[in-house]
Structure prediction request, 200 residues.
Amino acid sequence: MVAQPQPTLTPAGYLDWEAQQPLRYEFVDGQVVAMTGGTIPHNQIAVNLVALLRPHLRGRNCKVLSGDAKVAISDDGPFFYPDVTVTCDERDRTARSYIRFPCLVVEVLSESTEARDRGYKFRRYRQIETLQEYVLIDPDRILVECYRRNERDNWELVTTMGEVSGAAAEDSLVLDSVGLEIALSQVYEDVVFPNETEAL
Prediction:
């Protein structure tokens, strides 16, 4: 992400302005932040998750959304573009510009966004009453961190990791929010890791 100098906007002004732009922009405190393209592994992981979630949730009145769909913390923002989002809330059924009530948000990490995804964004996402799980996925090694809201409204971290060769097939990501267990080998299917690239 690269911050673009723009005039301070109202939430309504941002939504109108962004609809006319060729790029996607997140919106925080009246300022816009341009969303830049990710790496191929980053995109591959997001595609894998959407492909696994969509058939699992078919017929359950849930939406599985990719990185082109905005999530709003409130109607006044901030507005973010997670890599994968699931909402099963009736209040999002007719949403056009953004959703407000996701149960699952997934961010695939990158060097430029990791600190923001772990810090500022997670603090804001936790304000969403319906959010049950926030998942961070490392595209450069097999490492998935799932933050899960417990019955006391506290967030617990479950970390799942594996080896690039072999062991990943035995480990899985459990998503209680949607009732799905996914093998890490499926999460990382067709992903080439940096050390594998060097060996080619």
